[in-house]
Amino acid sequence: MSLIKAALGICETGPLDDSFWAVEDGKVRVKLDQMPAPLAKGGSTYLRGKGLSMPVFLMRSEDDQYLAFENRCSHFGHRKLDPVPGENKIRCCSVFHSTYDLDGNKLTGPAPNPLKRYTVEQSNGELVITL
Ligand code: FES
Fold first, then answer.
1. How many domains does the structure of the chain reveal?
2. Does pTM surpass 0.90?
3. pLDDT at residue 112 above 90?
4. Where would you tag: which of 6, 79, 103, 104 has the fewest CB atoms within 10 A of its CB?
5. Contact yes or no for 101/84 (Cβ under 8 A)
6. What Cα–Cα distance (Å) separates residue 101 from each residue in 33, 56, 98, 113?
7. CB-ligand 1 contact for 111 (6 Å cutoff)
């Protein structure tokens, strides 16, 4: 990631098209089987809008688990998140790059708290994220 992007808090992770997910009864349903290309291992996207109080960061880990977190670093800059390429880690898109493990626990950087992690279940071609 370039220093300019980091200074501006610009992540590599982009939003998921609205047509592939919905919010219902405190759960987000992601239509995995309708997405034109599944998330690659180590890949990520995020969901925003549709009444969500906070964007949701969704990633597929290198060992093929879908994970979801509040898309917000706990450091005061509250930058959004990216996966760390080739590693089962998450980092924020700031110059300070706080990093977290896949449970949301901080590994490095100035972030004072863990990430808020959501439960993700997979069934019948969809992911269900409980907020
Ligand atoms: S927002 Fe400052 S380290 Fe993440």
1. 1
2. yes
3. yes
4. 103
5. no
6. 27, 17, 10, 12
7. yes
